[in-house]
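TA notes. Do not distribute before section.
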Amino acid sequence: MPRSEPARTPPPTPGGSAWTPPAGPAPNPPPAPPGWPASAYAGPPPPTTSGRSAGGYAGPPPTVPPPAGWRPPVHLQPPPPRPLPPQDMVGLDAAEQRAQRFTWGVGVVAGVVLVVLCCLLCSRVLF
């Protein structure tokens, strides 16, 4: 069997695509094996004079727009929203201050642990 040479691709261009379309007409497909029909696909059916293909999809049914100003009927009216309970501003401020102190405390503990670890690691390297 003869060996065919692989197709060569052009080198990539700066800032562009490496693929370039082939020049000239598209290549013909390979011939069908012996005993097979020449082509299994004969192309789209020819259009009919009515504009619809024979036995195919006829399209959606025609629609009639609703009259101007039409809206769907409303059966239930939701009740108005109820008032929210009053907020305890003094209690909210106190809870916020406790949360802030806790957050700062966790940060200080984490910082102290990191400083101690760095000192231990540095003392092992130096001595």
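Switch to the second chain here.
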Amino acid sequence: MVVSIEQAPAISCMIEAQRVGGSLRLRGAILSLQQASGSYRLEIVKESGGGASNIRQSGDFTASVNLPTLVGSTTVDFAPGARIKALLTVNAADRSYQCSFDNEAQ
């Protein structure tokens, strides 16, 4: 008899979004079940009646066990009707993890 136990991924990520007045602050967070290091890329797209803008941040990180590691941070104007999407890609231990944010999906 084979028993399959699904394990949580070694690394998880999320994008924190916080309203600050008429702006939205976005920042990436990485949580690891073991000591880990690697790289990240945070991509943010803002679309509004006035056009679109793109923000890209990337770098290296080292995550401690079960402690959130903040990576990338930006604040964008959040006018009515604006759409803001973000994608965080984390590369560590020969694997890739992604998480996303879309204010229209909230």
